[in-house]
Amino acid sequence: MNMYSRPLVLSLTLILVLMAPVAMAGSFELEVEGGAFWQTRNDNQIPNTDAGTRFSLVDLAGEGPWPAYRAYLTYHFNEKHSLRGLYAPLEITETGALTGSLLFNGDTFAAGQAEATYRFNSYRLTYAYALKRGGTWDWDLGFTAKIRDARVQVAQGGVVSTKDNVGFVPLLHVKGHARLGGGWHFLLDLDALAGGPGRAEDLALKLGYDLTPAAQLRLGYRTVEGGADVDEVYSFAWLHYAVASVSLRF
Length: 250
Fold this sequence. Notes:
By secondary structure, the protein is mainly β. The protein has one domain: Lipocalin. About 10% of the residues lie in helices and about 70% in strands. It contains 2 helices and 14 strands, in the order αββαββββββββββββ. β12 and β13 form a beta hairpin.
C-alpha cells in the first residue's frame, strides 16, 4: 500500500468503527470478486505534446489475461440508505517489443525489448439511496468518491521512467437488482462520469443465485473504461473482466 492509499483506507476503517455502535440497527454486506481481465485499449502519451510519443500498452504488454480481484464492504443503515467501500488493486508488468523509438516522460527508448508496468488501483466510498423497492426491480442512486492511483512505467536497459498519477474523481452511482425467480437474480452496478477532459465508467453485469437468504454466488462481466486528455498526460484504457463473486450479509 502506498502513501496515497493509506489515508483512504484509514478513513474507511474509521467510518466503519464509528458505525459499529449502531450496527444492531442495520447490517453489513461483504462481496469478494475474483477473475481475469483483458485489455483491448491502453493508449498513452506522456507528456501529451510533441515531447511525447503516443504508444499502445496493448502492443507492448499484450492483451492478457491477468488475474484481478476486488472487495466491497457495505453498511446498510436501513432499507433506504447505505455506505459502501471498495478496494480494487490492479497492476501488470510485461516485457514486449517497441517497434520504434519512444519519447516517454522525458526519456528516450530505442526500438527493441522493453518492460512496461501499468497500475490502476481504485479506492472508493459510495453513498446510495434506495429509489425503488418492490416488484421485479430494485433501484439505488447515489454518488461515489474515488481515489485513482495510476502508474505507467517503461524500462529498458538501465533507464526506468515512471509516471504516477493520483487524484480524486467524483462518480455517479446506479445499481439495479432484478428478481428472476427460483432464487436467481440479475445485478447491474455502475459508477460513471463523462465530460470535460476525461471520463470513467465501471459497469458490472452479473447473474446470481441465492445459496441462502444471506449468501449469494454471482457470475458475470465487468468493463472499466476511461482516461484523460490533458497537457500533462494522454491516457485511455478499456479493460474487460470475467468475474465470479461471493456476497455475504451479516
